[in-house]
């Protein structure tokens, strides 16, 4: 049986089929998107001409190291296709993202993308979002207020800590991440609107109506899911 890392690699590999010469490609963040960036870097070394817009400092650095020309929204305001990972993929291709803390720039990149393709292994498929704690990016000064208001929505939040033990995790934009739940998110659109209405919230990790396609690697194959697909 393939390992989870092997499955992630298979999904990332499948995404290469959607890249054409001359495209502006959105570079996602996280372990699966990183595998895709590495594969894309190999193609660029062999002569593929594309430009990348990165969804995090990490992905920008990696892309540049691999020889992918990294541009920003001053050079192009439209992205042909973005390849990114997800923490949960539910029916309708409703997603939770932000497990790696990059949700804000990821959502900006997704919002500028003509096509947004999720790459993941089958463990990310769920019927209902929320088992993975929902990440919310908040302005540091507002955190206690935001946490209190999230409680009123039934969301118990914790400030994310940096993995190296240096204290609070700080995003690329200098903010905090609150991880909320686990919970059961029956109506992600309604919940997203309520969270966004809290002053001090910068962005949340619910990505609804962003993804057009998901490439999900299971034991025997990489399956394509659209918004109409049943999630097994
Ligand atoms: O902030 C991180 C991103 O949203 C990632 O794309 C997400 O957490 C999935 O990451 P991974 O591919 O490592 O499971």
Automatic annotation (TrEMBL):
Active site: 106 (proton acceptor)
Annotated Pfam families: Rib_5-P_isom_A
Binding site for substrate: 29-32, 84-87, 97-100, 124
GO biological process annotation, one example: pentose-phosphate shunt, non-oxidative branch
Catalytic activity, EC: 5.3.1.6
One GO CC term, this protein: cytosol
Key words, A-Z: Isomerase
Broad EC category: isomerase
One function term, GO molecular function aspect: ribose-5-phosphate isomerase activity
UniProt key word Isomerase: yes
InterPro entries the UniProt entry points to: NagB/RpiA_transferase-like, Ribose5P_isomerase_typA_subgr, Ribose5P_isomerase_type_A
Assembly, per entry: Homodimer.
Protein name: Ribose-5-phosphate isomerase A
Organism in which the protein naturally occurs: Terriglobus saanensis (strain ATCC BAA-1853 / DSM 23119 / SP1PR4)
